[in-house]
Write a structure and sequence with these properties.
Layout lengths: L2 H11 L6 E4 L5 E4 L27 H7 L3 E5 L2 E4 L1 H19 L4 E2 L5 E3 H7 L10 E4 L5 E4 L4 H11 L8 E10 L14 E11 L2 H22 L3 E5 L9 E8 L5 E6 L5 E3 L18 E7 L3 E3 L2 E3 L1 E8 L7 H7 L10 H13 L7 E6 L17 E3 L21 E16 L9 E3 L5 E3 L1 E8 H12 L16 E5 L5 H21 L10 E3 L6 H11 L3 E5 L1 H6 L1 E6 L4 E6 L3 H9 L3
Parallel strand pairs: 5-9, 18-19, 19-20, 25-26, 25-27
Antiparallel strand pairs: 1-2, 3-4, 6-8, 7-8, 9-10, 10-24, 11-12, 12-21, 13-14, 13-21, 15-18, 16-17, 21-24, 22-23, 27-28, 28-29
Helix pairs in contact: 2-9, 3-6, 10-13
GO molecular function, one term: proline-tRNA ligase activity
Subcellular location: Cytoplasm
Pfam families: HGTP_anticodon, tRNA-synt_2b
């Protein structure tokens, strides 16, 4: 019997038989009898915000606040309340299962990381503004860790010395910190967030890639169990380093990423790394071009400051610069929102005082723009021709892989990322092992993350509708809520609860059913009107709502509702567990 099934069975068998009622106020009663009840489960709901556009409705984050899942503490910082914590716990339990499937052991590293380690790895340069940094009373420097590559590499370095100790796979689910310049969209872009990080250690690059493939399969299995549509895309490793990475996304119109897919082949790439090939037949038939101007980041040479102006010549028309393609050619391109005009105005004073050198000009043209078409007098010296197109892909463009005009663009929210790091951290931090031939070999590493709190925010937005949240079965706070109409006797709701739980538990334990959700119904026994309870059930987003209404008194049948499947039907109570189990297969 699996650990999770044994845990559920134990909880059911050890549930207290006695009933304890605690009257706390004139309307709130805490009723503890071993059954899940909303009377003691705090759900501080709020009224809708005024002025919401009815055509657009509330987004997932607004609904999480209103339904009592979380509260905002500061910009980009949120408190999880009981409902939110139940969702978080379910996501974590799912992750635990899939990490154990690849032989990973769980750890918990400190949120405080040494600044010295980050300096040694070379990752501190250029990241000062996004890190929360502090000093202790002895003036030692620390930071609140956004990731733990340096710390975990140091731990392994001091404990693992032989190839016989590899492979090693360690993961954690902890709070991370990043001082976002512009926190937005609730849990999707916060300054404090919950992350799962898996760190892998192998002897050779070949073995590390085998590990990478195994982790990728575990990620796909995890997302498949969620039963939400997802995309996997080749991605840029960015500041993490390494040579091979993939992103895992939920398709969403609110997403900040754009995934480029081909309808004819298997191409799937983040827009950041999808650079279209230049075909000679694409020579511009337009004689006009448009100029984009930027600059490089400033550098200092003694007292003097210097930077370069970057002029980019693009085809005129419905084209947009791919800033990532340009950065491939100009690595020190400044991508901050600080405009070149502002910089010119600020620089003029420094130029007059001799504190800034006259900027050089870098001129680059998209290969479709012929040099003779450039009439702008800002071009200084040689105009470099880019080896690939400098504009973003558009719907119906030619695929860089198969040449078919089948490009599709999808807005998406990133919820996971896998990186093959190689020796990016093991080499500077001197994490090596003795190989079989007695030579010292730098450990091959991988880092694989899932944004846990980000996933919760994305899932909430993905299925929400005009009535409220609509959770996937696997991570709903409770799979089922039981609501009695009018003056339904408490013993009747208890009867339905017990029948449902015993039936579902029996089916769950008799498996095998990989996607079977543990039974976790809840009784809404709060002292509230019947209509209010039904509206609240829709707002919270339980996958199943069971109503003891008219059919209960006459037929001992309950009304079973499933908003995601469009189900509303009367079901005899004895058949309820089987019917819900059948619908669970579709969720």
């Amino acid at each position: 019997m699996s650990a999770v099934r044994l845990r559920i069975c134990t909880l059911w068998r050890t549930a207290p038989s006695q009933t304890v009622r605690v009257r706390t106020t004139s309307r709130r009663t805490i009723h503890v009898d071993g059954r899940n009840r909303l009377s003691y489960f705090w759900t501080p709901t709020q009224a809708p915000k005024k002025g919401i556009n009815e055509a657009v409705g509330e987004d997932g984050h607004d609904l999480l606040i209103r339904a009592g899942f979380l509260r905002q503490a500061q910009s980009g910082i949120f408190h999880l309340l009981p409902l939110g914590l139940r969702v978080l716990d379910k996501v974590e339990h799912m992750i635990d299962k899939h990490m154990q499937s690849v032989g990973a052991a769980k750890v918990s590293l400190s949120s405080l990381s040494s600044t010295d380690l980050w300096e040694k790895s070379g990752r501190l340069d250029g990241r000062d503004k996004e890190l929360f940094q502090l000093r202790d009373r002895k003036d030692a420097k620390f930071l609140l860790a956004p990731t733990h590559e340096e710390e975990i590499t140091t731990i392994v370095k001091n404990a693992v010395h032989s190839y016989k100790d590899l492979p090693l796979r360690l993961y954690q689910i902890t709070r991370k910190y990043r001082d976002e310049a512009r926190p937005r969209q609730g849990l999707l872009r916060g300054r404090e967030f919950v992350m799962k990080d898996l760190y892998t250690f192998d002897l050779t690059s070949e073995q590390a890639m085998q590990t990478y493939d195994a982790v990728s399969e575990a990620y796909r299995a995890f997302l498949t169990e969620l039963n939400l549509p997802f995309l996997v895309a080749t991605a840029d490793s960015g500041n993490m380093g390494g040579t091979h990475s993939h992103e895992y996304h939920f398709a969403s119109p609110r997403g900040e990423d754009t995934i480029v897919k081909c309808g004819n082949c298997d191409l799937s790439m983040n827009e950041e790394v999808c650079f279209a090939k230049y075909q000679p037949q694409q020579s511009s038939i337009e004689y006009a071009c448009t100029l984009w101007t930027g600059r490089t980041t400033e550098t200092r040479n003694g007292r003097a400051r210097t930077a370069s102006i970057v002029n980019v010549y693009l085809p005129q028309g419905d084209y947009e610069l791919n800033i990532h393609a340009l950065k491939k050619l100009v690595p020190d391109l400044d991508t901050s929102p600080f405009s070149v005009q502002d910089w010119h105005e600020e620089s003029s004073d420094f130029l007059s005082e001799g504190e800034m050198e006259m900027p050089a000009i870098i001129s680059i043209r998209d290969p479709r723009v012929l040099e003779e078409h450039i009439t702008d007098d800002t071009a200084d010296g040689e105009i470099l021709s880019a080896p690939f197109l400098l504009t973003k892909q558009r719907e119906g463009d030619q695929c860089p892989k198969c040449d078919s005009p089948s490009i599709q663009l999808h807005k998406a929210v990133e919820i996971g990322h896998t990186f093959h790091l190689g020796t990016r951290y093991s080499k500077p931090l001197e994490a090596a092992v003795q190989a079989e031939d007695n030579t010292q070999v730098d450990i091959e590493m991988g880092c694989h993350g899932i944004g846990v709190s980000r996933l919760i925010g994305a899932a909430a937005s993905l299925l929400a509708d005009q009535r409220g949240l609509n959770w996937p079965l696997a991570i709903a706070p409770f799979s089922t809520v039981i609501v009695g109409a009018g003056k339904t006797p408490p013993e009747d709701t208890r009867e339905v609860y017990d029948t449902l739980m015993k039936g579902l538990l029996s089916q769950f334990l008799s498996g095998p059913r990989e996607r079977a959700a543990p039974p976790d119904a809840v009784i809404d026994d709060r002292d509230r009107p019947f209509g209010w309870k039904l509206n609240d059930a829709d707002l919270v987003g339980y996958p199943f709502i069971i109503v003891l209404g008219k059919a209960w008194g006459s037929e001992r049948a309950v009304e079973l509702q499933c908003r995601r499947l469009g189900v509303k039907e009367n079901v005899p109570v004895a058949q309820l567990p089987q019917r819900i189990a059948e619908y669970c297969e579709k969720l």
